[in-house]
Amino acid sequence: MDAPAASSRDLAAVLRWYVEQGLDETIGEEPIDRFALPAAASAAAPMAAVAAPPPARPPSPPPVRTSPPAPAARPPVPLESPQLVEDARALAEGCATIADLEAAIRSFEGCALKRTAKNTVFADGTPDAPVMVVGEAPGADEDRLGKPFVGVSGQLMDRMMEAIGLTRAGGFYITNILFWRPPGNRTPTLAEQAMCLAFTRRHIELVRPKVLVLAGGVAAKAVLDTAEGIMRLRGKWASYRLSDGTEVPTMPTFHPAYLLRTPASKRQSWMDLLAISKKLKELA
Ligand code: URA
């Protein structure tokens, strides 16, 4: 029996799925019908404009552990140009104030994301607030408005922080690892992260927050330089060492975009918020 033809609603759903995965550009003049190619030719053909969704895989059995796992090391960064990271680092090191840093980032041309973004998204809130939040990267709303966390996940972030008495007007300062929106909100590459992280590390040095909050796995892994996932990291205090040896208590927590998709995890985030509030009281 012939498969029914895909409806335009199905096709729109597939396209939406591609865009959500970050595939929002075509790279060939003509589409390739991979179903019409012989298997060998299909494997050898250049990348199609869009990739097919991955086939469902049966869950693998849990690993058997005989000893406590060693902390996972972050894999080496496959740098497109190590020189660009060095340039970013040198530029960042030369910034004595947050205003200098913002100007340096705005004038930095080494990150290709800048070419597709509408705006550079630096930070929001008050830099002398006790808490500094670092997220992943601007989304469409942030790119349009030039401010971090202003879309739906930003609104949830504001409500969560407000629940422990912190607002952007003096309670927390907020930024991202990336200053430019990755096309289609794809996960930033390690090379893009390394370049922007040079600025973010300087940003943390200049702000010197009492408490650092890392929202989501990308920010937590990058700032803490670990391969551990957010499921293991969240809810446990880590420490971020500034260049003068000061240790900043650091809380990795779920990204609000994840909480919007998985509301049941809000309970754990609430525990993280309570821990942050308690830490601030201890430090006051
Ligand atoms: N998600 C982020 O990580 N940062 C933003 O600014 C917006 C959404």
Q: Strand-and-helix sequence, N→C?
A: HHHHHEEHHEHEHHEEHH
Fraction of residues in helix? 40-55%
Strand order in space, largest sheet: 1-3-2-4-6-5
What characteristic shape results from the CA principal axes? globular
Q: Estimate the mean pLDDT confidence.
A: 85
**Number of helical stretches of at least 4 residues:** 12
Which ligands are bound?
Answer: uracil
> Based on helices, strands and strand pairing, what is the structural class?
alpha/beta
Q: What is the rounded Rg?
A: 21 Å
In total, the number of strands is 6
Percent of residues in β-strands: 5-15%
For this entry, what is the oligomeric state of its chains? single chain
Distance linking N and C termini = 72 Å
Low-confidence stretches: 22-29, 40-54
Largest sheet: 6 strands, mixed
Provide the descriptors you would attach to this structure in a database record.
10% strand; globular; 6-stranded mixed sheet; 12 helices; binds uracil; alpha/beta; single chain; 284 residues
Structural description of this entry:
The chain is an alpha/beta fold and 284 residues long. 41% of the residues lie in helices and 10% in strands. It has helices at residues 8-20, 39-44, 82-93, 98-107, 113-116, 140-145, 152-163, 190-207, 217-224, 230-233, 256-261, 266-283; strands spanning 123-125, 131-135, 172-176, 211-215, 238-241, 247-253. A 6-stranded mixed beta sheet has the order 1-3-2-4-6-5, sandwiched between helices. Strand 5 (238-241) and strand 6 form a beta hairpin. Helix 3 (82-93) runs parallel beside helix 8 (190-207). The chain is globular and about 65 Å long. It starts with 7 loop residues before the first helix and ends with a helix. Residues 22-29 and 40-54 have low confidence and may be disordered. The structure holds uracil.
